[in-house]
Amino acid sequence: MPVNMWRQWLTSARRALKGESRRTNGCRRRLPLALRLEELESRVTPSVTFLTMPSAGVAGRPLNPAVQVSVMGQEGTLSFPIGPGDTVTLAVATGPGGFSPSGPALTAITDKNSVATFSNVVLNAAGDYTIVASDSETQGTSAPSSVVAIEPAPASQLVVSASAAQTPEGTPVSFTVTAADPFGNPATDSTIHFSSSTTEASLPPDYTFQASDNGEATFDVAFTVPGTQTVTATVLGSNVSAADSVSVEPVPIDNIQLNLSAADITIDQPITLTGTFTD
């Protein structure tokens, strides 16, 4: 602990401690003023607490508002600011991942009010976290913070997979859409829109991924036009998309019905022949 800070504390402590104790008869007892620095230091208990901790955040984005940590010293009923210049370090106590980037420790320096502000707290893995703070000078450590719930970022990766390479004309085929954010978290709250290579397709309506989907949902599509047909899924409001194709096979004709325009036919007289073909 910087000695000059302890001297400032000592001055404040002397002033406050002069009348802190009283005898049982109500007479004031003056405490010794020659309180040594090392004696005061041994009596001070560090107090590291979170002043600000958001309850929620988004993967890959700095927590907002910024995390703030207070570092104080407690001696009896007296509370002393540790003062500017202390290094405070954050660490993940519980959670599915660590801070981003994962290199150097996440640190900040206390200001004149003994508050360290962290404006760069980023967590990439979605889930619930608690965080602890520690002060390098007093060796004090905070209790775990309140829970911070990190939600996935908007979907930036899509995969569309057909359940079969071929399907008969008019028979529904399943398409599975997998959506993830840039950090591999299953996407939630991202809406996808469907389109096809043919207008003769029964497409599902727009769909918004829910947390219970775990980033994957399956939809049925039926084509009434033979040939290679494609289904494309696009994240609304972005250029993120993916597609897959199936070969739509024509259905064999099972019934042919021909109709003449007249019951009697005259030689060299034109007639009309109509037919109905059904599968």
Write structural notes for this entry.
By secondary structure, the protein is mainly beta. Helix content is 8%, strand content 44%. It has helices spanning 3-17, 37-43, and strands spanning 21-22, 28-29, 45-52, 56-58, 67-75, 78-81, 87-94, 106-109, 115-118, 127-135, 148-151, 157-162, 166-168, 173-180, 191-196, 201-202, 207-208, 216-223, 227-235, 241-249, 255-260, 273-278. The strands form six sheets. It has a five-stranded mixed beta sheet, with no helix packed on it. A five-stranded mixed beta sheet has the order 13-20-19-15-17, with no helix packed on it. Strand 19 (227-235) and strand 20 (241-249) form a beta hairpin. The longest helix is centred in the first third of the chain and has 15 residues, at 3-17. Mean pLDDT is 83; it is low at 17-35.
- Mean pLDDT score: 83
Q: Any low-confidence stretches, pLDDT <50, length ≥5?
A: 17-35
| Rg for CA atoms | 37 Å
Q: What is the end-to-end distance?
A: 89 Å
The main pleated sheet reads as: 5 strands, mixed
Strand content: 35-45%
**Globular, elongated, flat, extended or rod-shaped: what is the shape?**
rod-shaped
Counted by DSSP, the helix tally is 2
Strand runs, count: 22
Give me the secondary-structure category.
mainly beta
Throw out a few tags for this protein.
279 residues; mainly beta; 5-stranded mixed beta sheet; 22 strands; 8% helix
